[in-house]
């Protein structure tokens, strides 16, 4: 790595790469974050920097590239560490948020359970009270039934008498209904006879009305024929009137022409007479 002045020397970087073109700027010395390395590395780094001019360009290039790569890795590490710290904080915040939510849900759950217990207790208490009231009601009903049992026999006897009376009334009503049915049958027969007479008279009236209607229809038909003829004659009269008006117009035009000719002729004769008188 360092330059050698011996003539009979083995292969070195100086002999193998005398004209090496470096990739990096080898004028700069490699820098490391000395706070992150151990003491041995610090000593080696200081020796390298002090003897920088004695080092082959390829070695310088490699050391600089290593330093650059080391710093890039260090920056990536710092970036990753920062991201991990941020994610850790985020996880802690989410965890704290979930713990608060869990506590709140637990409180809500406890409150809901307490509420349900109270509702169940109240529900069963109301049911028990309702059952007690129902038992009291049935007891009172049994007592009232027992007290009214004695009066039931009397009511039964009076009910039997009432039933017998209603049977007698039913028999009387049945007889009355039969009489009414017979009367209705007679009325229906009389009504049937009357309806037959009315139907016969109605048919006769319909026949008379049909004959009269037929006669009226024939009269209307005849009147329509007369009206049609009169209409046709009126149309002919109108056409003839138009022709007469046209002929009258022609006659008037001819008369006007004749009058004009006659007037011209009289004027000429008058002029001739005047001329003769003057001569």
Radius of gyration: 73 Å
**Major β-sheet, in short?**
none
- What is the helical fraction, as a range of percent? over 70%
Uncertain spans: none
Distance between the termini: 174 Å
Q: What class, by secondary structure content?
A: mainly alpha
How many DSSP H or I helices?
3
The succession of helices and strands, N to C, reads: HHH
**Overall 3D shape:** flat
Number of strands: 0
* Overall pLDDT score: 80
Assess the beta-strand content as a share of residues: under 5%
Explain what this protein looks like in three dimensions.
85% of the residues lie in helices and 0% in strands. With 279 residues, the chain is mainly alpha-helical. It has a domain at 13-106. It is flat, with a radius of gyration of 73 Å. The termini are far apart. 2% of the residues are buried. The mean pLDDT is 80.
